[in-house]
Amino acid sequence: MSPPPPVTPEEARVVLVIGVIGSGTMGHGIAQVLAQAGYEARLCDVDERLVTDAIGKIRVSLDKGVLRGKIDRGTRDAALSRIKATTSLIEAVRDADLVIEAVPEKLELKREIFATMDRAAPERAILATNTSSLSVAAIAKVARDPSRVLGMHFFNPVPVMKLLEIVRHETTSDAATATARALGVAIGKEPIVVRDVAGFASSRLGIAIGLEAMRMAESGVATIPDIDKAMKLGYGHPMGPLELSDLVGLDVRLAIADYLEKEIGPSFKPPELLKRMVQEGKLGKKVGEGFYKWKDGKIQG
After folding, report:
1. pLDDT tens column, 184-225
2. What does the radius of gyration of the chain's CA atoms come to, in whole angstroms?
């Protein structure tokens, strides 16, 4: 199949106000980088506690930037002032130029949210999903104008990771794609444009390596640290596939593997080790234990 058609910067629309739906790890990271780049970010979640916690995490992240000399106090304060927290999805999107959905990887949940976004956002607004593997076309079906829907897949941690994967489904407009690319560049990311196929480019490659590393650990090919060291020292990866799985979340990796197995085939069948760890609640860094034990964001031992 042919690659996505090229788009030109001239087709990009002006974006000033951006709604971010979901204040978890990805959502609050996205809101932070948008605000730091000068955009007004409307950060929304279903519970006041969740958005308050998210703003606290953004503040901590920006404070670390000040301590490390990467930003000054004025930049930090200006970024925080541009983030508006709300528990009303309608409030978050009603005058937005672009909306980015960043809720858990559940198709029906995303479709439900997109249906509300589609009704409440201005007709000019571009609607983006941060999904790492789900069909963008399936999400876009609930929109009255699917041409304004596309994927904007950010990577964790959002303030650090440079890649932005823009996903076009068959009817995504060139203007929407160009706008997403221009925004990516403006916030310091390196955009790539891919077709809407299962796993896109990044998740399909990343999960393939991660699942094979898990199978190797399961069969005792090498220890978990040595499997990771093989990829770091032998191939120049910044972190090994098992450490990365802990960072992403083993529940997230399992959901992606299940989806890709159905869409592509048995090569993506999740190992029993992964299933067992998720059942036992060993989900990775966010809970303090996965393939490694974690404390204060660092691997122990």
Report:
1. 999 999 999 999 998 899 889 999 999 999 999 999 999 999
2. 19
Strand partners, 40: 17
Structure tokens at 221: 């090919």
Q: What are residue 16's DSSP bridge partners?
A: none
In which band, very low, low, confident or very high, does the pLDDT at 73 lie, cut at 50, 70 and 90? very high
Which tokens hold the place of 178? 């160009």
Structure pTM?
Answer: 0.86
Domains of the chain by start residue, with CATH: 11-195 (3.40.50.720), 203-286 (1.10.1040.10)
pLDDT at 132 exceeding the cut of 80? yes
Q: For residue 280, which phi and psi values (nearest 5 degrees)?
A: -85, 0
**For residues 139 and 34, what is the distance between their CA atoms, to the nearest angstrom?**
24
Residue in the block written with tokens 């060291």: 229
The CA-CA-CA angle for residues 62, 63, 68, to 5°, reads 95
239-257: per-residue pLDDT in tens?
Answer: 999 999 999 899 989 998 9
